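Re: that backbone. Tokens:
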């Protein structure tokens, strides 16, 4: 018997905001979220650089905000997090999200700033699969999340830890603090635990997933982006991840976090039990993605060796101490200073030449309510987000991370002394 609904829509640039409004309606946003409650927007910045398919798109954010406000969800707050490889301030700026928060008067908070968000201990209401073991001194979550709606804004892409990533993985940055990397060895169980927590603390949970670009390869950053023209929405975080996985060519129940969540009744992971509304033909597509493990980068191979391979004993322990900033420096050296300047532009060449690529480049100049958007013109010969300009920017990032590493280490020492909060 059908237990969950996932909306899937085929779209195009000329009607993207209109389609996002229809998508949220078909996905059942009115029933999923509680009226009168603050609604948290959790965007997905996998890389602060504008690498297409890795990050929440500006049309995804704007379309969702407009649709929510139209339905009376006017108390919107965006909550950002930082990671080893992303700077949220640069990420929201370079990916053209920051102007949208200002335009629609959406407040912004940062879960790593103690003067904005306080972390409290969470006592599990159900048996945890991993988090109580990873954090034996207590599981801490942002107090601000309790009693509020949340809308996740992931993209369709693969991931070197979890095969695919989407709605369930999007909770990882918001609910866990800067020690979230401690959970990587048990990442599948962690995502299931986080879904359990969300069901207890939020008044409503909804996901809006952008697949206008979709990423295949060693994600969530170093992928090959493809134009796929689809978007998805659902109140069932397991079901939307299952449909996205199936689109990419994977058996959803072969992916551990989807299978476990399905078996525990946290959502529906079996496509046969999911009702597709919108464009059924689009939902039946198979993109035959090769996945994240076929051609991993040097960095992703090393990460696998550290968390599950021969380097786990010698190195993994350091990531749980004040020495952890070494990973920050290493990631910036590899991803920002080497891979992005040399590989990103080449990998994005085809999608940058597409209508979506031109739309991204021109997004700030468009009037969403205009009767017709202007001709976006030819794809630019050069793109300001790639090449040696990015290399110069990455050197600035590297200098910053080296300068800030002692303070990061000191903050980690204080957190460890306080019980890992």
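Recovered sequence:
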């Amino acid at each position: 018997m059908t237990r969950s609904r996932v909306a899937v829509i085929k779209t195009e640039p000329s009607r993207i905001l209109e389609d996002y409004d229809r998508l949220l309606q078909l996905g059942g946003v009115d029933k999923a979220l509680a009226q009168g409650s603050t609604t948290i927007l959790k965007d997905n910045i996998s890389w602060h650089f504008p690498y297409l398919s890795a990050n929440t798109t500006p049309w995804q954010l704007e379309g969702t905000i407009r649709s929510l406000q139209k339905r009376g969800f006017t108390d919107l707050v965006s909550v950002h997090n930082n990671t080893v490889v992303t700077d949220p301030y640069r990420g929201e700026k370079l990916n053209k999200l920051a102007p949208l928060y200002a335009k629609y008067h959406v407040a912004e908070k940062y879960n790593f700033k103690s003067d904005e968000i306080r972390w409290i201990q969470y006592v599990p209401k159900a048996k945890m699969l991993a988090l109580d073991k990873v954090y034996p001194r207590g599981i801490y979550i942002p107090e601000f999340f309790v009693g509020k709606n949340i809308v996740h804004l992931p993209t369709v892409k693969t991931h070197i830890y979890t095969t695919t990533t989407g709605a369930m993985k999007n909770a990882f940055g918001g609910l866990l603090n800067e020690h979230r990397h401690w959970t990587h060895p048990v990442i599948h169980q962690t995502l299931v635990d986080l879904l359990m927590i969300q069901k207890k603390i939020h008044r409503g949970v909804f996901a809006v997933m952008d697949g206008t670009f979709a990423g295949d390869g060693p994600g969530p950053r170093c992928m090959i982006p493809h134009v796929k023209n689809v978007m998805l929405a659902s109140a069932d975080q397991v079901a939307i991840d299952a449909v996205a996985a199936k689109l990419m060519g994977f058996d959803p129940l072969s992916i551990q976090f989807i299978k476990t969540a399905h078996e525990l009744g946290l959502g529906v992971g079996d496509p046969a039990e999911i009702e597709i509304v919108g464009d059924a033909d689009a939902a039946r597509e198979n993109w035959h993605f090769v996945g994240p493990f076929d051609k991993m980068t040097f960095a992703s191979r090393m990460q696998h060796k550290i968390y599950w391979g021969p380097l786990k004993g010698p190195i993994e322990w350091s990531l749980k101490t004040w020495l952890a900033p070494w990973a920050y420096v290493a990631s910036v050296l590899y991803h920002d200073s080497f891979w992005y300047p040399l590989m990103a532009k080449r990998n994005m060449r085809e999608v940058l030449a597409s209508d979506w690529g031109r739309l991204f480049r021109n997004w700030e100049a468009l009037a969403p309510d205009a009767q017709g958007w202007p001709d976006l013109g030819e794809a630019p010969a050069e793109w300001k987000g790639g090449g040696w300009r990015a290399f110069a920017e990455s050197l600035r990032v590297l200098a910053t991370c080296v300068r800030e590493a002692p303070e990061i280490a000191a903050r980690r020492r204080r957190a460890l002394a306080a019980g890992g909060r």
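The chain has a mean pLDDT of 89. Residues 387-417 form the longest helix (31 residues).
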